[in-house]
Amino acid sequence: MARLTKNQKEAQAKVDASKLYSLSEASALVKEITNVKFDATVDLAIRLGVDPRKANQMVRGVVTLPHGTGKDVKVLALVTPDKEAEATEAGADFVGLDEYLQKIKGGWTDVDVIITMPSVMGKLGPLGRVLGPRGLMPNPKTGTVTMDVAKAVKEVKAGKIDFKVDKTGIVHAAIGKVSFDAKQIAENANELIQTLIKMKP
How many of the other CB atoms lie within 10 Å of CB of 179? Predict the structure, then answer.
């Protein structure tokens, strides 16, 4: 087993393994035990106890975090010319169609979220091998394939995240930054937890 570093030992000393922490206590503790020089991301890992191999136990969805993720999300809107202005106005970082499809074909994936329209999805099919493994393929279930492109862009920029249970039945999601205050971390975490409670089969 790997030996703990000095910082890891210090962090471990502040956590009582026998205690069940409330969400607000855990959120405050996260701020105390972080000692990296950058603004670290706060992740939530929730074991659902489901078997995702069974279709009726697959948990996937979206949630808008009340305080956002703390990350500047780069959005690509793959839209027809008539929708370009509204996507740009809503705050999309990259807007266009064929030129970006060519760039993606060449291996460019320097974005966090891709939003598109139903009529464009046919052109994205052949790019599944590039976009799929990176989790960038737009999906109607997560609201990234829509006619209301402006609304989708604004929601993603405001802190909308999508989550999916992994093959071991655990949902992993980034819910903020250590620089958030403890109340903001707790409220973001609670929003995701409540969404999962409603969805869990």
Answer: 14
